[in-house]
Every structure is written in structure tokens, then in C-alpha cells.
Write a structure and sequence with these properties.
226 residues, 2 domains, globular, alpha/beta, five-stranded mixed beta sheet, Nucleotidyltransferase, domain 5, 32% helix
Length: 226
């Protein structure tokens, strides 16, 4: 299916990198968005939510032309669930798949054209996920692709940055509390709507990114005390 056909057809975006997974479904100019409760399970709730949204549009999963997946970094479990659902829906519908790093969706939505920003996420164990972007009129320029850094090594990366996209946990881990905190801090939560917009534009250009999750470090098993 051509990029133009996918843009006119039914498009789904799945953002599952955080504790509040979200979906966006669009057909033509109409877009529906739903954010799920943090306490609910990604796997159990995503498909019922999608079914309700498709019903509101009078559509079925087999009509999907493009599926956009947020690839993280973020929750290991959430990213696996999102990728698995996307792959299953694509096999059933023949839809094309487009992976977009979740950090890019956050930066695209929060930064204004011409602004440069640093996206931070607490990776725990004294580490941070970090990426840096510059917003253009219609797209995003990647200055530093997502990577893992030690919290104590972040100071040089923030020099010259006027916007930091982070939550309280990331700011605390980076020791960016006042007065060291940059003067402009915005939300780092990626939205399904921004993901859908980026994915649509990239699919129209034939720039389909991989849906492989961005696992930036090996998964560490944690044992629970009884």
C-alpha cells in the first residue's frame, strides 16, 4: 500500500513505553485518542480499548492501513506488549508498520519550532535514558539518539539546553533540582497523538522505522522478597 493510501486510510498509533499506555486511531481528518489508567494491564486493556475506538469510527481492525509503534526507551514489558500487538494486527490486516522512538514523540509535541531540548528518563541504578532534539517546522532533528548515561555525567550534555523534558523522578535522578534546574522544564510523557502524526508523515515519505523496542541495556531480573 502506498504512503498516500495509508495517509488516507485507517491509522493506529500505540504508545506503551510508560505506565500510562495510550492509543490513537485516525481516519482522514478525524482522530480519536485514549489514555489508559496506570493501574491497568497493558495487554488486557489495549485491544478492548482499540475495539471501542474502531467501533466509534465504524471501522474494523482489518481496515488498518498503517500501525505506528512507540519503540521507547521505557518499560520493558510495555514495549514488548506494544510491539507484539502491532505485529499481530499487521499480520491480520496487511497494514504497514512504522516504529518511532517514544522520546521523539515527546520532543515533537513539547518543543516549539526552533527549540532544542533534552529528554530525560530515570533508568534507575544511578543511570538515565537521555536524548537530544531540535524541533523544525514539520519534523524533528535528532542531535543525540537515545542512550544510557550515568546521572553524574549529565552536566556536559545539558550545557546550552534551554528546555528539559523530564518528570520529577528523572529530575531527581539527574540532580537537576533548583537552583541547578534549567529554567524551562516540560513533560516528557509521549502521547499517542504525536506518535501518530510523526508516523503518518514518515510513512508518507517511505521512512518506516523498525518496531524493534529500544532496549538500551540488558534486562535485569529482580527477585521479590517473600
Amino acid at each position: 500500500m502506498s504512503g498516500a493510501a495509508a495517509d488516507r486510510g485507517l491509522v493506529l498509533a500505540l504508545e506503551t513505553s510508560t505506565r500510562t499506555p495510550a492509543l490513537a486511531v485516525a481516519r482522514g481528518p478525524r482522530t480519536l485518542v485514549q489514555t489508559l489508567a496506570a493501574a491497568r494491564a497493558h495487554a488486557a486493556d489495549l485491544l478492548p480499548a482499540l475495539e471501542r475506538m474502531l467501533g466509534e469510527l465504524g471501522a474494523s481492525p482489518r481496515e488498518l492501513a498503517l500501525i505506528v509503534v512507540g519503540t521507547g526507551p521505557g518499560s520493558y514489558t510495555g514495549l514488548r506488549v506494544g510491539a507484539a500487538i502491532a505485529l499481530g494486527l499487521a499480520r491480520a490486516s496487511g497494514a504497514r508498520l512504522c516504529g518511532v522512538p517514544s522520546f521523539e514523540a515527546a520532543a515533537y509535541e513539547q518543543l516549539r519550532p526552533g527549540e532544542e531540548g533534552l529528554v530525560l528518563q530515570d533508568a534507575r541504578a544511578g543511570e538515565l535514558y537521555v536524548a537530544r532534539y531540535r524541533r523544525t517546522e514539520q519534523q524533528l532533528e535528532v542531535l543525540l539518539a537515545p542512550e544510557v548515561t550515568r546521572a553524574g555525567e549529565l552536566a556536559t550534555a545539558t550545557l546550552g539546553t534551554t528546555v528539559v523534558l523530564a518528570d520529577d523522578a528523572a529530575l531527581a535522578a539527574a540532580a537537576l533540582a533548583s537552583p541547578a534546574r534549567p529554567h524551562c522544564v516540560r513533560s516528557a510523557t509521549p502521547t499517542a497523538a504525536a506518535l501518530l502524526e510523526l508516523g503518518r508523515a514518515r510513512a508518507a515519505r517511505g521512512a518506516l522505522g523498525s518496531v524493534e523496542p529500544l532496549y538500551l541495556r540488558p534486562f535485569a531480573m529482580r527477585s521479590q522478597r517473600r
